[in-house]
Amino acid sequence: MEPATPPHAHRNSPRFDRTSAAILDAAARVFHEEGTGANLASVAAAAGISRATLYRYYANREALLAALSADALSAAARRLSDAGLERAGVEDAIGRVLRALVAVGDRYAVLISDHAMLSTAHEQLAAVIQGVLARGIETGVLRGDLPVEIQYEFLAGTALNAIKITQQHGLGLEEASAAAAGFFLDGTRSRA
Questions:
Q1: Per DSSP, what are the bridge partners of residue 142?
Q2: Is the pTM above the cut of 0.85?
Q3: Scanning 97, 105, 106, 112, which has its CA 20 to 30 A from the CA of 33?
């Protein structure tokens, strides 16, 4: 569902883009901290706007979650596409995957907190990530006793924890991503 266009703004106007982006940023933070059932008044307050303005942009919670989900998927897909995964060695590619997911931050955490959103994310992002993991198994870089699907779940969980670390412990994107990549690779690297 598309957000409602406010009567005073056109979708491509800078004002609409800034307000919409502020709402999505605030929603990502609030929903990540309080869950997707958080009060929309909290989202409006975090965005620095009134509830009426929020509802002009997003008619209801479902529309806001749909927009946040689409934004998270788009950002993650764009970052993964720009990462040059197919040209990187497996270990470097895993670092790039984690950096891409951690960079999406709160949006990624909210995206995978809802089963329907997680299913959509899986459909759109898993093939690229699982391709890296499959290449790692085939080349002997990653363990062969753990199927790609299991390694993918571990990688997704590692990304979520790296996001939490950036928020709760003040680690920067690069440091948290590198730590996550090292942690993931230590557990999945081939023992041969």
A1: 189
A2: no
A3: 97
